[in-house]
Amino acid sequence: MKIKGPTSKKLFCFLTFIFIGNSAFSQYGSKLANIVPPSPNASTYQLYGNYPVSYNTGLPDITIPIYNVNLKNYSLPINISFHASGRRAELNFSSLGVGWALNAGGQITREVRERPDESAPALETTVAEVYSNSNPNSYQTFYDKLLGTDLTLSQQYGPSSGDLDSEHDIYAFNVNGISGKFIMRNGAPLFLTHCPFKITVLNDAYTLTDDKGIQYIFADREKTVVLGQPVTTSWFLSTIKLLSGDLINFTYGDRLTGSPGDDLAVDNTQYDEIEVKDKPLTLGAPEDQPYSTLMQVNPVNQEYGIKYVTQITFNGGIINFNYDQYTLKLAGCQVSNQNNQQLREIGFDYIQTPGTAFHLINNNSTSLNNISIKDAAGNAVEKYHFDYYNDPLPDPGFNFSNYKDWWGYCNASGKGIIILPADQSGFNYQPAYCSKEPNFNYKRSGMLKKITYPTGGISEFIYETNRYENGTSTGAEGPGIRIQKIITNDNKGNQVTKLYKYGPTENGIGYLAYKPELQDFKTEVFYCYIDYYDEHGDGIIQAAKRAYRIRRFKPRPVAEIARAYNLPVYYNNVTEYTVSSNGNLNGKVEYVYNTPVSFRLVYSLSFNSSFLPSYSPNVFFLDEWTVGNLNQKTIYTLDSGIYMPKESTEYSYTEFNRTSIPQIKASRTTMFPWEHAHNAGERVSERMCALGATPWFTSAVPVFEIVTNPLEAGILKVTKETHTTYHLQDLKTITVTNYFYDNLSYLEPTRIITTGSKGDILQKTFSYPQDMVSNGNDPTGVYLSMSNANMVSPLINAIKSKNGTQLDQTKTNYSIFNNLFKPQTIEYKKGTNQPTVNVIFQSYDTKGNLEQLTKPGGPPLSYVWGYNKEYPVASASNALSSDIYFEGFEEATGTGISLTSGHTGHNSKTNGYSKTLTGLTNGKYTLSYWKETSGVWSKIIVENIDVTGTAYTISINGTYHVDDVCFYPKDVQMTTYTYDPLIGMTSQTDAKGITLYYEYDNFQRLRNIKDQDGNIIKKVNYHYIGQ
Prior knowledge:
Blueprint: E1 8-14, E2 35-36, H1 40-50, E3 62-71, E4 74-82, E5 100-103, E6 106-113, H2 127-131, H3 136-149, H4 151-157, E7 170-175, E8 178-185, E9 188-191, E10 198-202, E11 205-209, E12 215-226, E13 229-241, E14 247-255, E15 267-278, E16 281-282, E17 293-303, E18 306-314, E19 317-323, E20 330-337, E21 342-352, E22 366-374, E23 380-388, H5 440-444, E24 448-452, E25 458-468, E26 476-489, E27 495-502, E28 522-533, E29 542-553, E30 573-579, E31 585-593, E32 598-602, E33 618-622, E34 630-639, E35 642-661, E36 664-668, E37 670-671, H6 686-691, E38 700-708, E39 711-726, E40 732-740, E41 751-755, E42 761-767, H7 769-774, H8 782-788, E43 797-802, E44 805-817, E45 820-830, E46 836-844, E47 850-854, E48 861-866, E49 871-877, E50 885-887, E51 897-898, E52 908-909, E53 913-918, E54 923-933, E55 936-947, E56 951-956, E57 961-969, E58 973-980, E59 984-989, E60 995-1000, E61 1006-1010, E62 1016-1019
Parallel strand pairs: 28-37
Antiparallel strand pairs: 1-38, 2-6, 3-4, 4-5, 6-7, 6-13, 7-8, 8-9, 10-11, 11-12, 12-13, 13-14, 14-18, 15-17, 15-29, 16-29, 18-19, 19-20, 20-21, 21-22, 22-23, 23-24, 24-25, 25-26, 26-27, 27-30, 28-29, 30-31, 31-34, 32-33, 34-35, 35-39, 36-38, 39-40, 40-41, 41-42, 42-43, 43-44, 44-45, 45-46, ...
């Protein structure tokens, strides 16, 4: 572990000012929290970023699929997940109850640090930079900047033109399996965890473009009140724009204020803090002056909004989400096609959370009981059931959120005012004792115990407490819980148990980046003034230098260190054992992870005056990209009671693109109550004190303490992989693979060199769009355009060689079709031969669907797309795409369209059909279609149609039903297809007119395949327990 030592200085002000009376002391209330987290709603999702699912954290992946939005080359899973890290006391909102989160889209969250970024310019500097210049003018300038960062003044007197922001806000994004963190620096994003994505901002909406060029637009905002003003702290996913131009749109509901009967808390008293105010002391008097105190309890409120997804629309379908009106519990969701025909319904029902015998807001005493999935006919087809641990919690009622350990998990802290028994010296109030020690049973209360699946199988989860190193053999109990055992039974007599052991030598001890300290739960500020008074009533005014302090004790860590208390215990060593149904051990897998790099920075503790005891908050930051990197994985088999290694893979990492963003953390330790509130002509300003202009007295009193607190950005990438396979008689083969990253902007391997056990060297060289530009291989500018659109992941060129001799090369050449970047040709080169073109992609439609391709010496292959260009409805060999036509009337509307009678699909056309085709190649063509007479469908073929002048009008007369109209060149083989969108293909008709029909049950599962006469040629049966 690498810990950077503190770099800190004090900024002293010499006091000299006029003060009249002391009645204004009470105007200084609680100091505004200088880190505002995302809303309780957004925090449910952010938990996965702070506490990731991994062997490294002991957190199992518990996910239940709800529905998959499957479009061409893109899939968006809708699911729910359970975060089994332990029961938290915070009353965060979830529409699914304790522990569950609905994953139906994505969001960007912001942790506001100090001022919102957009409200004031950033102050990027270091303590060393400030004190490297002793020029008084620069010292005064820096003092003015510190005043600009002081939230205490803004809270009391409002913003000013001189405000500065000493820390960057931290943004985190999570959408469809991609996640990361970034800051906004000079109006542009800087990723803290490097990733090949692009972020742009317009009108307070963020667009994230992934490395494939897919755009995720976050424009639905959730606000939090900061410094008295509503500030956006979350941006929810509004639209996904695919490469085809298709859109997936998200609609949300808002709950901005509580309504009568609501069971939500959006203007929420988060916690109570105790404020202890000392009796003023006379500076310079004997040190044994008696203290007297005034104690009061101050509620700390935070106003939040709640945003919840109500609808997702996409090409061919729609998903609606329904909620309880008062609790916003998710009641169900329905999946429908473009015709509003319901295909699936998912229902959710709930129970009182086991072990929670009292009612809590924001669904914190509610647990998900069942998920029922119904088919299109309303029949229950699948059902999931959930059981939970019912360890009883203490009954604190509305004080539930105060019953928590150091890290915010439930514990038995006792009754009374919830503050720590910290540093009682200096005031005579002794608060009720409050334990912050963790309690395993309370942390486990309400956690998921068992899942019963639709098949009747089960998964059971057994937990144990996390432990971290504290210098003892057993370690100390840490934040949350970890998985000890997962028992899986398939309801057919097969049971497998996964058993997990943690820590070096399986001692159960992990690494906690920051250990809790009492001082992290209090703040302290001194208030200094000159008291003018007539001691004897004789008109002689005397002056006294006085000070008093206000300490505030909180049930949660102060803002400067709060991040450290949200981190899990990290385990460098995790072993997974497999146990069979009969209890026999079958083998094990050992995982070894790196230790994340964290910083603990401490403010200066020295003061000149013994009458002003020191208070110095800690500062903490974690290098995000150093967390959870797998160093080694070893698989063992069990042979005669001895574990023998079977294979092992070791990973070595190299740091890339490290960037340090200078920041300081400033803490005001001394207030001058009248300094910024009045304009008394005789008093000397605080700025004059900073310059030493002090004709009244020269007592050195610290005003600010500052510490360098940089943000660090970067990434660790695998640069070496060593794979060892073990054989009998201690023999083994070793393969070493080295990864090289020559493009630091994209950081995908450009060369991979593998050395085999026999000494053979295999090299693969890759080029991506950015490489083609930088290497001068972009004559048309297409790769520069792709790079500008952040379409940087397509592999353009791949070369394979062995022992220095080239084996082959594959190159995909891109071009622009209908403003879309698509492959134009694929070249292949064997050895040192000249490259040959294997495939030519000649035409794409406006949504990027392939319309025509050819292979060298072969005929063209062409396609027609339908259903809003989502599915191929016809294919033809030996024809240009411009020379074929198909109409199945599945998308047709208007006069004569029958929705109930079709040869294939659902629709047909009556009262004739006419269509003019243009752009045809002159020659002989065939027209074929199906017509219905007296309930019988027959195929009509008209051959040897002469096309001259590149145009032809199809004209079919009659009152009968017409379907599957095809027009194509003579001797061309044409196949047609129909679909039920979101379900599957419903028919396939070959060039001979032979049709296969595909039937599905009400749950969209393939049931029968029938021939053209209606005979079943294949039948599929599905069996679930209880059906």
